[in-house]
Write a structure and sequence with these properties.
Order of helices and strands: HHHEEEEEE
Structural class: alpha+beta
Strand order of the largest sheet: 1-4-5
Distance between the termini: 168 Å
Number of strands: 6
Helix content: 40-55%
Shape: elongated
Number of helices: 3
Radius of gyration: 56 Å
Strand content: 15-25%
């Protein structure tokens, strides 16, 4: 019977033959626990955010785009209104320049009427001066006379009153001008009233 107080026999190396304690050589120290999981990712590092956050961001962007669209629409409306005003003003004052050029003509005529006892020479000089003013106004606004004596008849610019025989004028050519016609910027304002040589 073995005495419980007797120590177990030691082996040849002086080590006990009892239960060996686990060896810690090359392993972790007692009580140390090896980490079995990788380092946790910090919140927000590369994460897209929660659905609520993405929804808020989308609503914010939508509100910004809506405001930009409203501003663009308002700007376009302002441009349209300014364009309408410019067009209306252009139509309303289209004849302003021509009317201004006629004022000297009126002034000349009024001055001629103020002369109590005009002579024939004075009247002629006044009429000639007024005609020069009127011609200058016409030239300034590209209002050109149509005076086609001797030219071939052109139904687009001439209005024939009668056909007349004339030996020195070729057939279908203008013999005389009863009333001048006028062009404004190459457009017929009034055709010339003419007589035309008849015959083949």
């Amino acid at each position: 019977m073995t005495d419980p107080n007797t120590a177990p026999d030691a082996g040849p190396n002086g080590r006990s033959h009892g239960t060996d304690a686990p060896s810690h050589e090359g392993g972790p120290a007692p009580g140390a626990t090896a980490s079995a999981h990788p380092a946790e990712t910090e919140p927000g590092d590369g994460a897209e955010g929660s659905p609520e956050q993405r929804l808020v961001e989308a609503e914010t962007r939508a509100a910004e785009y809506h405001e930009m669209a409203l501003r663009a629409r308002a700007e376009m409306e302002n441009l349209r209104k300014r364009g309408q005003l410019d067009v209306a003003a252009a139509h309303k004052y289209a004849n302003e320049g021509f009317a201004e050029s006629l004022l000297p003509v009126r002034d000349s005529l009024e001055m001629a009427l103020k002369v109590e006892t005009p002579t024939v020479e004075n009247l002629r000089e006044g009429v000639e001066a007024t005609l020069r003013l009127l011609s200058a106004a016409f030239d300034r606004h590209k209002l050109l006379a149509i005076d086609p004596v001797g030219e071939k008849f052109d139904p687009n610019r001439h209005q024939a009153i009668s056909m007349v025989p004339a030996g020195d004028v070729p057939a279908n050519h203008v013999v005389s001008v009863l009333q001048k016609g006028y062009l404004i910027n190459d457009r017929v304002l009034r055709p010339a009233l003419v007589t035309v040589r008849g015959g083949a």
